[in-house]
What we know:
alpha+beta, Diaminopimelate Epimerase, Chain A, domain 1, 2 domains, about 40% strand
Amino acid sequence: MTSISFITVDVFTSERFAGNQLAVIPDARGLSDARMQAIAAEFGYSETSFVLPPESAENTARVRIFTPTSEVPFAGHPNVGTGFALGRQEEIFGKRPGEHLHFEEKAGLVEVTLQRKDGIVSGARIVAPKPLAVGPEIDTATVAACASLDPDALSDRHHVPVRVSVGLAFTIAEIGDIDWLSKARPNVSAFDAANARYPLAEDSFSLFLYARTREHPWRIRARMFAPLDNVIEDPATGSASAALGAYLVSRLPDADAEVELTIEQGVEMRRRSLITVSVSKKSGILGKVGVSGDCVIAMRGSIDI
């Protein structure tokens, strides 16, 4: 019997046992696709990341990301947490990573920059691998049914419900206020119906709900449900936050903008997370979309295989 090492990281938090849990396998060489999927299911976190040698020597690593049910091409908190975990490792494949890491993923190349406090790696910032993609619009009744909410709880003040992506697709919808957002509950049967009506080739239907005030439009409360991926609720969703930030900035009337959003998620789960999203726009064209946050190592151990 052999064993492989793992690290678990709490992402988008500076407090242990808060934020979003991530399992990282720092050296996944020799693991089959089926074994990776089985390990991800065993952890039961929203995602588990597996680190492999890069195909190009110019890059840091090849990273594969699995939910409990399937592999995904990109996700936010696994990249932030994996970057942090590798930054805390003494050696990765015989060398220490630099301050700037490059991860080869199915969605493309992901740029990662380590963040430090008092000289110690404390988190990471990533850049979304793909430009903003928008569509289709999703009907309000479908979203309301998935969230077990009255359709009147949804707001179209800024946009109608719509699918957006900067590497991984989510349906985003604005809720009229935080109280209604807190009452949302995923309805699996409604998610099944939504998945049949709005199918995705690479993933199943997932829903990112958010609320904000007129006084603080760039401070956002959010929740994410993906029960068809065995993720009843996710405490922090960096890829959805990046897509939301990019979409909101794209709709600003200004041709030029530099916006930083703070997205608070996981409150209802007692795993509060803080996600920072930075988006730039110049001459009406979106630039790179960055996602950053703090991380904390929670556990270290080994898996018998």
